[in-house]
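Researcher: Re-running this chain for the archive, since the previous output was lost when a drive failed. Same request as before.
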Amino acid sequence: MSDNEFPREIAASVRRMAGHFPAVVVTGARQTGKTTLLTKLFGDYNYVSLDLPAEAQLAEEDPQSFLSRHPVPLLVDEVQYAPRLFRYLKVEIDKRRDMNGRFILTGSQKFSLMQGVSESLAGRCGVLELEGLTVQELGLVFSRMEEGEGMAGILARGFMPQLWKDPAMRPADYFASYQATYLERDVRQLLNVSSLRDFDRFMRGPGSSQRTIA
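Model: Regenerated structure tokens:
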């Protein structure tokens, strides 16, 4: 399935906020479609991802040089990896408070992201959250579901866009990879977990209990 088959309901809100705020912040879990959506809506913006270690390092250690290298209008992906950047964004925004939609920021670690937003960008940005596909967004998929699969099949597949773009992908394979990424990149950084194996067992425990109850 192509991306065009999933028009995201949040798109109109993102555009509206970009017309009223100097910056727009879009949060949401990994792989919910933030980058796909925003690069479509703001295709003429300069784009940089702080998932790239070199870019994250520059943004954190020398925010001024980072902003000189990547001029506005600018879309910054995973901005939480450079906490110092938020203060420099505030300075840039305050130079021209009358110019809206200059910065579009995304982040998948909501706690880290919102800490930077609340400390430096309060009143200067609109904040939205993009979750998995909604029932309405999946309406086109529903109309094409093979007879007999029904709601049980939809729930088993889940609501992450990639699983519907690639119907041949096994949900178990997808979520195993997703969990590994979550543990390595987010849990270790946010919670300073010493044993990812123990934390993985902790995560699996409630799921096992739910299956037993069900």
